[in-house]
Amino acid sequence: MAKAEGAIRVGIGGWTYEPWRGTFFPEGLPHARELAHASRQVTAIEVNGTFYRTQSPATFAKWRQEVPDGFVFSLKAPRFAVNRKILAEAGSSIGKFVDSGIAELGDALGPILWQLAPTKRFEPDDLAAFLDLLPAKAGGLALRHALEVRHESFRDPAFVALVRERGIAVVYADSQEYPAIADLTADFVYARLQDAAEDEPAGYAPAALDAWAAHARTWAAGGDPKDLAHAAPESRAPSARSRDVFVFMINGAKVRAPQAAIALLQRLAR
Asked: Which domain covers residue 257, as residue numbers?
């Protein structure tokens, strides 16, 4: 029998951040124990380090060993694959990343995040060729791909149709800088909340966190929140039985990200 709703995971970006020591991490906690601690406070982490350098299979295996069952890592794909004028030429960079040992994460491997540069415009043919390079599997593990676009030209029904055809999720960005596109295009949802305020103890006001909890539940139940901006409102995705949901507290007031994630998880547990 199909589950009633998808899993909702809420996390932060990385686990190495000096201002978190003494606020999120207990005083005196060894740096080597920070991942173990963080992975027991939130349910997912988006890894930024994979964007800048190639990790080893041993590193991925070590990360998997340090986190509890059910925890997942989202990996940001390398800049060499996404920061280029012609995305269709990224094949070798994509292959190097996928073959770098990411399958060592096993069931802790969450979605792969492909984040385009803010200057990259929507060019249908080039984007389609790039998306067709993204592999379905790595080491026998099925891969989920999420695409974050950061130029207003992507607010286009043709873009939504292109990614929906391939089952790739469009990242919803809660940001004052980048377009918010809530169109559902895959069997999971990936949201990056980037508008936290440092003067809010939990990053977001209580009412805002209540609203995000409601959105996450709607997504997980297969629904589509009506009050979020869509690029193709006339061609909404059909309702699904369920969708897995990944929500990350990213940037904004990063010092508040762990508190924001924990506050959202508390609301979802009620």
From this structure: 8-268
